[in-house]
From TrEMBL:
Gene3D superfamilies, alphabetized: FAD/NAD(P)-binding domain
FAD-dependent oxidoreductase 2 FAD-binding domain boundaries: 6-534
Annotated protein name in UniProt: FAD-binding dehydrogenase
One function term, GO molecular function aspect: oxidoreductase activity, acting on the CH-CH group of donors
Keywords of this entry: Flavoprotein, Oxidoreductase
Organism: Jiella endophytica
Keyword Protein biosynthesis: no
Keyword Transit peptide applies: no
């Protein structure tokens, strides 16, 4: 006979932690299960940079940023491009999240002890039209402590509930079936996996040592997305919109982020929508010290690196560093190759290169202001960036452009790049640096970025000629497609209740975080504005936990 509990949460990532804490806060007993071990508590949020999309905050106002609900809504809708009948709930969830991001979000998180780096980042700057994709102003608030700093207050609350007996946490429990009938969720069943001592992020054993079955009054699916399952990514790839799926990709998430629970939910009668919407980065590096299979790290670039496709043609706006991820992805894939190149100088890498992830930002993860100042305002690039430059498989460094191009061709094993063509592109760009009336869109963008105090202080190099030896050596970086986020998923309403194929809520069943496209079955639409992934986990987990506790 299955055991019985009031509430069950499947997945101990950020969204699952928030949901479990919200339920337990209201006195309802919760069982929390996850296929990974306790070392993976917090899921993908732990590995993140901790960026949160918030609107009209004190951090923005101190930097002279004028933001508003109306501006944020315009940016979101222009980016999302909602155009399907099933986008009704995703759009409503997006609008509700913006109300949250403009309202109580910061105060709620601040009350839990979270703080933010004083320089607000300007991510996804857009595709060129006010009505189109992109952030009109900086909104990317990096949590002090990065991803672990986001997880910390919820893990602390969870452990308090564990000590009080309100939460029963069971790692290494993998769900294999979900029972739904008569319009409500009844139970889950699955396997108990062998205990694994592998460190967080590494692949773990799938040896089965037992089974389980649990009936629950409320079930919350918080199992994550599909980014670690390249076969499923390719199966869902939007060929008509982006072109053929890449032959070669690297992974921004561990292998256990496999989409398995989404398929189990669909088999049980839950609606899954927008499965062709996904978010993959174009600035991926092969990790020189990998943790999970095909482990990739994303460069968070400033605006000055020159971006070339695999054949050495400079990419045109909006395919510029930090501006429009999806347009750039489409542009790269149109070449028939999976890689592209940054060409830059030592002066640019020192000021403009940051790497995504908590482990690549030990200064901010460790909450050390001294280390931040020494790392980001001292001589040289931050140590993790210099480590990639020295040991990464994707870097070429040379004093002369001839040697740089030869090294780039050697790295890919084909003479795809012409020295004369690459030099002509760089010289033409360099001529625009001394021209106050520059026609080059990227040069104009650099000058615009430096009008923002935050970029001028820590994220944008002083404009200079790429071929000026005073700023050398020259650096080329081969960029790979990096899998990351699932923008579609289980269809839900504003309370995170799962909907069936006819659009009716399934009683007692909820889905949150990436499993639900971060809310509604895809509240980003076609494009993300960044900081909205963790934000969606917080928002949807909170909504599900509060509704599930009230419904009991």
């Amino acid at each position: 006979m299955p055991e019985r509990t009031d509430a069950l949460v499947i997945g101990a990532g950020l969204a699952g932690l928030v949901a479990a804490c919200e339920i337990a806060d209201r006195g309802t007993p919760v069982v929390l299960i996850d296929q990974e071990g306790e070392q993976s508590l917090g899921g993908q949020a732990f590995w993140s940079l901790g960026g949160l999309f918030m609107v009209d905050t004190p951090e923005q106002r101190r930097l002279g940023i004028r933001d508003s609900h109306d501006l944020a809504l315009s940016d979101w809708l222009g980016s999302a491009g909602f155009d399907r009948p099933e986008d009704l709930w995703p759009r409503r969830v997006a609008e509700a999240y913006l109300d949250f991001a403009c309202g109580e979000m910061r105060a709620w998180l601040h009350g839990l002890g979270m703080r933010w780096f004083p320089v607000v980042g300007w991510a996804e700057r857009g595709g060129g039209l006010a009505s189109g994709h992109g952030n009109s102003v900086p909104r990317f608030h990096i949590t002090w402590g990065t991803g672990p700093g986001v997880v910390e207050p919820f893990e602390k609350r969870l452990r308090e509930h564990l000590a009080a007996g309100r939460v029963d946490y069971r790692p290494r429990h993998r769900v294999s079936s979900l029972k739904v009938g008569d319009g409500r969720a009844h139970a889950v069943a699955g396997e108990v996996l062998a205990v694994s001592g592998e460190p967080r992020g590494r692949s773990t054993s799938r040896d089965v040592v037992g089974d389980f079955a649990i009936e629950a009054g409320a079930v919350v699916i918080a199992s994550g997305g599909i980014g670690g399952n390249h076969a499923l990514v390719r199966r869902n790839w939007p060929v008509e919109r982006l072109g053929p799926a890449p032959n070669s990709m690297i992974s921004g998430v561990p292998a256990h982020v496999d989409g398995r629970m989404i398929e189990i939910a669909e088999a049980a009668g839950c609606a899954v929508i927008n499965r062709d919407r996904m978010w993959h980065y174009t600035e991926g590096l092969r990790n020189h010290d990998p943790i999970w299979p095909m482990h990739g790290i994303r460069i968070l670039p400033g605006p000055s690196s020159l971006w070339f496709d695999a054949f050495g043609k400079r990419m045109e706006a909006p395919a510029m560093p930090g501006f429009d991820t999806m347009a750039t992805l489409k542009r790269i894939l149109a070449t028939g190759r999976d890689h592209s190149w940054f060409v830059l100088t030592q002066s640019i890498i020192e000021r403009e290169f940051a790497l995504s992830g908590s482990e690549q930002n030990p200064d901010m993860t460790g909450k050390s202001w001294r280390d931040v100042i020494c790392s980001r305002r001292g001589r040289g690039a931050p140590p993790p960036v210099e480590a990639f430059k020295a040991r990464g498989a994707d870097f070429v460094v040379a004093d002369r452009l001839e040697d740089l191009v030869a090294g780039m061709n050697a790295l890919v094993g084909e003479d795809l790049l012409s020295f004369d063509c690459l030099r002509a592109e760089i010289v033409a760009r360099d001529l625009q640096i001394a021209n106050p009336f520059a026609k080059d869109a990227q040069v104009t963008a650099i000058r615009g970025a430096r009008r923002y105090l935050g970029d001028r202080l820590v994220r944008t190099a002083k404009p200079h000629r790429i071929l000026d030896p005073a700023h050398g050596p020259l650096i080329a970086v081969r960029l790979n497609i990096l899998t990351r986020k699932t923008l579609g998923g289980i269809h839900t309403d504003l309370d995170a209740r799962v909907l069936d194929a006819s659009g009716r809520p399934i009683e007692g069943l909820y889905a949150v975080g990436e499993a639900a496209g971060f809310g509604g079955g895809g509240y980003h639409g076609y494009n993300a504005l960044e900081g909205t992934f963790l934000g969606g986990c917080l928002f949807s987990g909170r909504a599900a936990g509060r509704h599930a506790a009230r419904a009991r």
